[in-house]
Amino acid sequence: MPINEWTEALAADELPDNDIVGIKLGATKVCLARVGGDIYAINDICSHFYTRLSSGELYEDELAVQCPLHDSKFSLLDGKPHSEPAEKPVETYAVKVEEGTIYVGPRV
Ligand code: FES
């Protein structure tokens, strides 16, 4: 589900480096990831079946999150699956940090 405006997501210190956190913004479940200080946001629901990607594993070197159910990895950059069985990408979102708070917004 799209996010149409910048939305307060999480205190930045609640997302440690090299970690992922699942949050809910309205009706949209979002997987936040921090790698090397950079923060990424993708839709948290796997495009293959209904599973939360934030319950999976972060691969920092690939900038990807692995689905816990059937192991497809999704790019944090563009949401595309790196491996089967998933074939469709997940949505990605813009991220900004202001005064210690992470905001998630529409991809431009
Ligand atoms: S549910 Fe994610 S790869 Fe199947």
TrEMBL record:
UniProt xrefs under PROSITE patterns: RIESKE (PS51296)
Domain Rieske: 6-104
A GO term for molecular function: oxidoreductase activity, acting on paired donors, with incorporation or reduction of molecular oxygen
Record CDD domains: Rieske_RO_ferredoxin (cd03528)
Record carries keyword Iron-sulfur: yes
Keywords from the UniProt entry: 2Fe-2S, Iron, Iron-sulfur, Metal-binding
Domain of life: Bacteria
InterPro entries: Rieske_2Fe-2S (IPR017941), Rieske_2Fe-2S_sf (IPR036922)
Name used for this protein in its record: Ferredoxin, 2Fe-2S
Organism per entry: Rhodococcus wratislaviensis
